[in-house]
Design goal:
The chain is of the alpha+beta class and 364 residues long. It folds into 2 domains: 222 residues, Orthogonal Bundle (Endonuclease III, domain 1); 121 residues, Nucleoside Triphosphate Pyrophosphohydrolase. A hairpin with a 2-residue loop joins strand 1 and strand 2. Helix 2 packs across helix 12 and helix 3 runs antiparallel to helix 9. The chain is elongated, with a radius of gyration of 25 Å. Keywords: 4Fe-4S, DNA damage, DNA repair, Glycosidase, Hydrolase, Iron, Iron-sulfur, Metal-binding. Its cofactor is [4Fe-4S] cluster. InterPro entries: A/G_AdeGlyc_MutY (IPR005760), DNA_glycosylase (IPR011257), Endonuclease-III-like_CS2 (IPR004036), Endonuclease3_FeS-loop_motif (IPR003651), HhH-GPD_domain (IPR003265), HhH_base_excis_C (IPR023170), HhH_motif (IPR000445), MIG/MutY (IPR044298). This is Adenine DNA glycosylase.
């Protein structure tokens, strides 16, 4: 493929091409749009919650979380008035917990500064915690049907192929070009349906691997399809490099209680509860005993006698592949400090725990 200059690629699209694209896309969406719970209402609050939940998360994963969350907190005011621990408990397992804390903080700001009504313009929405350009555009266009472009994983991929953009889509230049294209394609009417249709086409047809070009309503308008370059264009997402890590979680028992601590600001899973947990260097239970004892005391103020290995859990968090060794331990002395506390195992169900913390709690 001959590489085109940035200026050439950025030439405005023909008016008849844009009309054809919009008409075909909306007709396709009318027949193929999925019945998703957040599409059953134009309530800006529900649109906002769904968009935050869908960040880096699959639709099928989000469905039950969205239903439970909006049942518990049906309005911005209800979310603002909620205890953060209850918010995190309902978010538990969805990951990227900063999203939940930002959502909660933003709800409080909406109540305090906007009388509990979600702002209907991009500029004001951008002043709220956790809301970026895409989320603001989604709320304004989908909930209020106002003209606002959107650009997320599905539309980045769709637009890159549509104009056969052969630069790096994730670069600054690539983002400028694709945001410009998103704005250029916006129709004068039905912006809500149009933007949802773009994302739906990317999710169901213009997929990352083996796109269903034969089923695409805009196949004849796609430059990459015409050139045969669909599979040769640069990836539209950056590939993560994973690092291996070893960590330990320690279940310290004192009578009928176990020791837990709340993860501090700046830690992974900030705001959630977990058993004492930390990175370890020692190999094997015998060699790890001294390290476990010292690190539990450092985190919680409690001295303990480490015992048997309960289980090993392998899991991934952001860019880490973690091997988590889970140990038993008996209380020896000391006093809890900071956010640590003793709790009965049955009461763990009331606390928001990390995913691995919940797995370990179930074993107790």
């Amino acid at each position: 493929m001959t590489r085109r200059s940035e200026a050439a690629i950025a030439e405005p699209l023909a008016a008849d091409w844009k009309r054809a694209f919009r008409r075909r896309l909306l007709a396709w969406y009318g027949k193929h749009a999925r019945d998703l719970p957040w599409r059953r209402s134009r309530d800006p609050y529900r649109v906002w919650v769904s968009e935050v939940m869908l960040q880096q998360t699959q639709v099928d994963t989000v469905r039950p979380y969205f239903e439970r969350f909006t049942t518990a907190f049906p309005t911005v005011a209800a979310l603002a008035a909620a205890d953060e621990q209850d918010v995190l408990r309902l978010w538990e397992g969805l990951g990227y917990y900063r999203r939940a804390r930002s959502l909660h903080a933003a709800a409080k700001q909406v109540v305090a500064e906007h009388d509990g009504k979600m702002p209907g313009d991009v500029a004001t929405l951008l002043t709220l915690p956790g809301i970026g350009r895409y989320t603001a555009g989604a709320i304004v266009s989908i909930a209020y049907d106002k003209s606002a472009p959107i650009l997320e994983a599905n539309t980045i991929r769709l637009f890159t192929r549509l104009v056969a953009y052969d630069g790096e889509p994730t670069s600054s230049a690539g983002q400028r070009r694709l945001w410009g294209l998103a704005e250029e394609l916006l129709p004068a009417k039905e912006v809500a349906r149009f933007n949802q249709a773009l994302m739906e086409l990317g999710a169901l047809v213009c997929t990352p691997v083996e796109p269903k070009c034969d089923a695409c309503p805009v196949e004849k308008l796609c430059r990459a399809r015409a050139e045969g370059s669909v599979n040769r264009l640069a990836p539209t997402t950056k590939k993560l490099k994973f690092s291996d890590a070893r960590e330990a979680a320690v279940v310290v028992r004192k009578g009928a209680t176990v020791l837990v601590r709340q993860c501090a600001e700046g830690e992974r899973w900030a705001g959630l509860w977990d058993f004492p947990r930390f990175a370890i260097d020692s190999e094997g239970p015998l060699f790890a005993k001294k390290e476990l004892t010292e690190k539990v005391a450092d985190q919680t103020g409690i001295t303990c006698e480490p015992g048997a290995l309960i289980t090993t859990i392998k899991h991934g968090v952001t860019r880490f592949r973690i091997t988590l060794e889970c140990y038993e331990a008996a209380h020896n002395g000391g006093r809890v400090r900071g956010s640590a506390k003793w709790i009965k195992p049955a009461e763990l169900s009331d606390l928001p725990l990390s995913v691995t913390g919940r797995k370990l709690a179930k074993l107790l």
